[in-house]
Amino acid sequence: MSETVERGDYGVVSVSVLASMPGLDFVRGIFAGTLPQPPIMQTVTPFDCTAEPGHVVMHSVPGLRHYNPIGSVHGGYAAILLDSAMGLAVQTRCPQGSGYTTLEFKISFVKAMTETTGVVRTEGTTMSFGRRAATAEARITDLEGRLLAHATTTCLVFELPKA
Q1: What is the predicted pLDDT for the residue at 132?
Q2: What CATH superfamily is the domain 2-159?
Q3: How far apart are CA 106 and CA 147, in angstroms?
């Protein structure tokens, strides 16, 4: 299932909305534009996003606006993409009434990105999902399939407060 993210509708949904649907439906709602995109996504403008149980894919284009002082794309750009892909992959596994939060994540930068890198693909996959904890991994690759960065995370899974 492929959904396109429409730019411009950014916001935060209430906990009651989040708790009212399974995690996969929530993530697909964000990707389809029926729910607002998280405001942090304004910085990376993802497109051509897909969500399946335990798996998400997002595309983005690094540009000059993402540069650090040494002339390449800032690591924060990759961190946003990787953390988002891992978290959303975990969210797709959350049953209705539960959510997650990131406890820790580790990133490895493999190859520098620049404004000429072109489209990058970020893929997040849930590795384990339990009653209290989940783990996930993500990779950013260029269109040639070259690895640019990768990460792992541990998330706390919990019941959302009742409205």
Answers
A1: 97
A2: Hotdog Thioesterase (3.10.129.10)
A3: 16
